[in-house]
Amino acid sequence: MITAELTYLTWISLFTALMWMPYTLNLISVRGLIAAISYPTDPKPLAPWAARMKQAHANAIENLVIFGALVLAAHSSGANNEATAVACAVYFWARCIHLLAYTFGIPWIRTATFIVGFGCQATIAAQILI
């Protein structure tokens, strides 16, 4: 059965899977296609926004592992409920805002959305363990 939690896991997985595109286009525009696909010895740096987006993508991948494991554990144990569904929805939107805040260099919003995402993970974990 497809649940809200699995739906949001799918959406955040797709979102995370597509995050590389903008900063990779910047990489190609800054370095050129050949240098972008090779290993230049002295590569030109990405634009600051693209470097931050690349860091946000790495952070999203790290957190997707935890979020995905918790969602799958809640689903398989039957612990999914309204709290886990809301936590998954909030997590999705928090991570979307986190990417934008990280990319545009908005530190307080970036940190707040990271903490909200962690709170969502904790909520799902609590539902599994209680």
- Give the biggest sheet: none
What gap, in angstroms, lies between the N and C termini? 23 Å
How would you sum up the global shape? elongated
Q: If you average the pLDDT, what whole number results?
A: 97
As a percent range, the share of helical residues equals over 70%
Task: Report the CATH architecture.
Answer: Up-down Bundle
| Count of β-strands | 0
Radius of gyration: 17 Å
Q: How many domains make up the 3D coordinates? A: 1
Instruction: Just give the CATH class.
Output: Mainly Alpha
What would the CATH topology be? Answer: Four Helix Bundle (Hemerythrin (Met), subunit A)
Contiguous low-pLDDT stretches (5 residues minimum) are: none
**Topology order in helix (H) and strand (E) letters:** HHHHHH
Number of helices: 6
Please describe what this structure looks like.
With 130 residues, the chain is mainly α. It has one domain (4-129): Membrane associated eicosanoid/glutathione metabolism-like domain (Four Helix Bundle (Hemerythrin (Met), subunit A)), CATH 1.20.120. It has helices spanning 4-18, 20-31, 33-37, 48-77, 82-103, 107-129. Helix 1 packs antiparallel against helix 4 (48-77) and helix 1 packs parallel to helix 5. The longest helix has 30 residues, at 48-77. The radius of gyration is 17 Å and the shape is elongated. The two termini are 23 Å apart.
